[in-house]
Design a protein that fits this description.
The protein is mostly helical. Among the domains are: 52 residues; 30 residues, no CATH class. Helices cover 34% and strands 7% of the residues. It is built from four helices and two strands; from the N terminus they run αααββα. It has a two-stranded antiparallel sheet with strand order 1-2. A hairpin with a 2-residue loop joins β1 and β2. α2 crosses α3. The longest helix is centred in the middle third of the chain and has 14 residues. It is rod-shaped and about 125 Å long.
């Protein structure tokens, strides 16, 4: 028994025509507009990439690859990822007052004004004396 004897059909079938596809002939091509439309559909909040891909006869990996390429080429921006313009204010800042404002503490009808730079021990002592006199 030879290797040629191991066929399902005992009678040879004559082939009328045979087509051989080589290279990129069988691949589908997508225009940039079609890719952008599919990417926009996949970017809608709540959209599932695999469902979008299936609707268009694609694999999810293709859509993710197109998204990565588009981001790299800066052709596609997701919602919320936009830059705001920078506005520079060239007006000078207002002049700083020579004397810093004091702190004013009202306890009943008594008013204690604490100037800037006063040490905390003195402030505690004054406030304690005002409370004790009431």
């Amino acid at each position: 028994m030879s290797a040629l004897d191991l066929t399902l059909d005992q009678e040879p079938v004559r082939v009328r025509r045979m087509e051989v596809i080589t290279g990129d002939v069988g691949r589908r091509t997508w225009s940039p507009e079609e890719k952008e439309r599919i990417l926009a559909e996949a970017a809608v909040p709540g959209a599932v990439v695999s469902e979008v891909a299936r609707r268009h006869g694609l694999r999810p990996q293709q859509v993710f690859g197109w998204r990565r390429e588009a981001r790299a080429a800066n052709r596609f921006q997701e919602e919320g990822l936009v830059f705001a313009p920078v506005v520079l204010d060239t007006t000078p800042p207002p002049a700083v007052p020579k004397e810093l404002p004091a702190i004013e503490v009202r306890i009943g009808d008594a008013v204690v004004r604490v100037p800037a730079g006063m040490d905390s021990a003195t402030v505690k002592a004054v406030l304690g004396a005002v409370r004790a006199s009431r």
